[in-house]
Amino acid sequence: MEAEISINYLAISSELIVIFTIVGTISMDLILTKKSKYLIALFALMGSLISFIPIIFQWANYSKAIVLFEGSYVIDKFSIILKGLFILITYLTFLLSINFVESDTYYEGEYYFLLLSSLLGALVVASSRDLLTIFIGIELASGPMFLLSGWRKGDPKSNEGAIKFFLLGVLSAALILYGFSLLYGVTGKIIFSEIVATLSALGLHQSPVVLLSAILVLAGIGFKISVVPFHSWAPDTYEGAPLPITAYLSVSSKATGFLALIILFTKVFYESGGSWGIILVLISGITMFIGNLSALQQKNPIRLLAYSSIAQAGFILAPIAVAGITGNYKDGVYSSITYLIIYAFMNLGAFLVVNILINATGSENIYEWGGLAKNSPMAGIFAVIFFFSLAGIPPLGGWFAKFVVFRSLLSTGEIFGVLLGVVGAINAVIALVYYARISKIIWMDSSIHEEKVVTITNPLKVVGFISLALTILSGIFPGIFANLGEASAIFFSS
Amino acid sequence: MVTMQTINLLAEGKATYTDGGVFAEFAWIIVVLPFIAALGITFFGKSLPLKGAEIALGSVFFIFLYSCILFYLNISKGVASEFFVNVGSIGSFQIEFGWVVDGLSIMMYFVVGTVSLLVFIYAINYMEGEIRYTFFFTSLTLFAGSMLVLVSAPTLLQLLIGWELVGVCSYLLIGHYWEEKENSSAAMKAFITNKIADVGLMIGIIILALSTGTLRISEILYQATHDYEAITAVAYIAGILIFIGAMGKSAQFPLHVWLPDAMAGPTPVSALMHAATMVTAGVYLLGRLFPFYQGIAHEALDVVLIFGVITLFSAGLIAIVQDDLKKVLAYSTVSQLGYMVTAMGSGAYTAGLFHLWTHAFFKALLFLAAGSVIHAVHTNNMSEMGGLRKEMPKTFITFIIGTVALAGLPPLAGFFSKDEILASLNHEGHNLFFMIAVAGAFITAFYMTRAVLLTFYGEYRGHGHPHESDSMMTNPLVALAFLAVVAGWVNIPGIYTGFTNWVTTRKNGIIEYHPESFDYFALSSGLFAGIIGIGLAYYIYQIISRPEDGDSKIKFQPVWRVLENKYYLDDFYFKYIIDPVKLTLSKGIDRFNTEILDRVINSFGSAASYLGGIIYNKFDQGGIDKALNLTSSGTDALGGRVKLIQTGKTQQYLMYFLVGVIVISVLVLLVL
What we know:
Chain A is mainly alpha-helical.
């Protein structure tokens, strides 16, 4: 193999722009006076937007995967798509945050600095192909979230949530690291392809050591994607964190976790898929049930969305789980990623709605939101579109995503696939109950807050319309996801 | 990315058919138009003189005209072609939308167009001054549009989209008076019952698509009729799952519970829903996939037959005891849908669609006439009506025509279509089902006569002075009454069987029984049952008692009670399915989360602390231990409280987490 001497800076220009923006925000925080701190927000917004430009060029001029750092870092179509997703989500989170951050007395510079750092971690995960890089990526993505989730320092709930998140996060990091160390101990390699080659040479793919390593990694990442039984932190942390951060946690952090899971389990542990596949099937099914049935009970919209996003994680996990058993990783990954991308925007939209309505009413009880659509039809329409999309009603994007996942589950002909399909189907109906209920309350129940003015600031409108457009377009023109199939094929050939 | 493809489906049909020419090519307009109209109503409706109703009316009028043209083309030359627009792919599947123009879909376009037009005209007057007038027309237009998306679908994917859109629109319309909690609950019930069925349909469709490698209905039917192995292997299960979908929309037992509650919506909605859109979707789907069912999924077809028969009989019985006029009609719809499904199940494709066709007109008529009565007397309850034949002559006469058509007396529409179903049951040798269907005819005649007598005869028992409705409302009644009379004449065995040709422009290998002449045994049984039904109802409600007495003189009170409670099916659902999920399972999981797991973890924790205590006492200094004990007892009260809020929990979560890891490890390493 020819050693790469010069670094292809163009290939990692998105990451470099994000790093530059990170440094910029923290320096600006030092220099600027209190009055002109809003410039930091502007700078961060611009930075994240500019970092999207290389993504477009890389996508348009794509010819073959670029391999950097002796195989540790790969830029292929798959990673380009996900990087684009992460940048877009972060951009939308900034927009969600602007009014929130300005409205209190905390330090603006830090807020943007931390979010951008998390973004950098996510970008690194997308391209990483060795144990160290992926670990750094995962932890860089989640580290800042510990701080951000405790951002409302005066609020005991926020502190409580953050502490729980942090302590469990540390445990999860330790487990991942322990799993990695087992792999390294057995093979002495850190690059995935070399680890697999060594394991094959030694015939150790089914050995207890490798399986234990897979389980430890699974537990560690199971925490990030909040699947049962590693989900307990999510409702508390979601409730305590500032809403934009909660949205980011449930979308971007979850996506990062899934990405790490996909990379590790389809690039390293794929030979032992028969063993972990069944575990994932179990976890996926149980997660759907516990998430949805708990969500049925919730009055607090944030806890409701927390449990709903736990259930959705179970659903996203299902194709990967079945792929583990059948070995058809390409199709499983394609379905999960498609779901993940569509889910990201509709869930962001759902949090936007919750954000708007909590700010307007000051009430964190959905049963007190009766008739709010009268005060603001736009919020009402957002609510219907995003919640119905989450429930999988056509022609919205969530429906197409569900269709793709069901197709993947049933296409295997594997009994576990069919079983998970049935579990998913039952859960689709359970979920519809609470998604439709919240829309019904907002539109149909008698109003308590007739005088309340529901304001939607311009940045929130932008978030709403971008998410709305993507949610609706992905449902009507699902063809745009055809490229993903191609991308996941490339992911497995590189 | 978007490419269009036209397919002429005549390869297997008769050579005399055409591809429909330019009118077929532009048939997409009638599918898209309602959605454009709905946008128009939303944005400009409120500033127009009729508040948006004119846009809605204009669009359905255009649909009506266009469907008339297509209908004419189909009658004169026969049309069969389909058009695809490709918008991408999922995996190996092409994602295509498009429109089908063949006999079956043209018949549906015509029914949807005609009934919608008349209902819209009626609604303009009926809904006047009601809340959310403009929004109502937006939803109603979307409702008709969604049905057209479904009916025009050349791919299962588009069919599924239309299918679910119809459900969403019905949710809006049923819950139109959502200020009353009952109505919004009815809407939720309809939505969720339908969703249960939709999931079945979706899985069925995915199975079909996976086994055939295509989402195009025509290709799936081709494979089904040419005994391709892959589709034959899954035919039974796919057939059942798709039928579950049809059961939801077409309100078959036991998924029919939403339809009677859907009466909460305004009457024009009920008329549209029960006649042309929504409930006919399931029968249409069975018709569209009929070659598949008949070719390779005939075991599934037997299941269809059984559910159809159960539905037609049980729903008819419930209709007898209803006091709410609209509910009588609602259960009657369920029962008639049972007839259609029975026909499909027994292999009588044309008979099922023929009954759909005639039923659409006379049921729309009955609902609109009932609406006219309700509009005048301001109640749904027949116990507060009576004697209205004098005050509302037009409504009375049209209602009578609808009743006679539904009861199946010649020469009105229902007679011919019901007779064809009975004839084919008789021909197929389903003796028991034949008898049940004849009994159903008796029940139908009975409850409709009862409704007429309680509503229009005797003395007026309500308040105020009812008077005949406006001509905007009665004219659609007259038009529908005309159709209810003549609609059956298009398929008279031995004389003129045009309808059979209209709906089978694509043969696709359908083999079915067509009576060459009347089956006089079936005919006389059905007719006899109908006359007995009318006579018995007349005897009970007019001779031995008066309409004022209602059901009070009926002897079989216990039977009545079971029927009035709809066989306790709603109670059953609540008691054994909804409540357990809501109260037990869901709460249980919640408690499982917060209490049991905590307790398990606590016991782990206390075991660990017990162990820790021993180690601590034996190996560490006793001094610090005692000091700690003192402190802990001092803060006991406080600690007890704090524990409940937070501190303990994080450790529990950590334990929980590790227990998870250990359990999984044990599972993987030892068990698997």
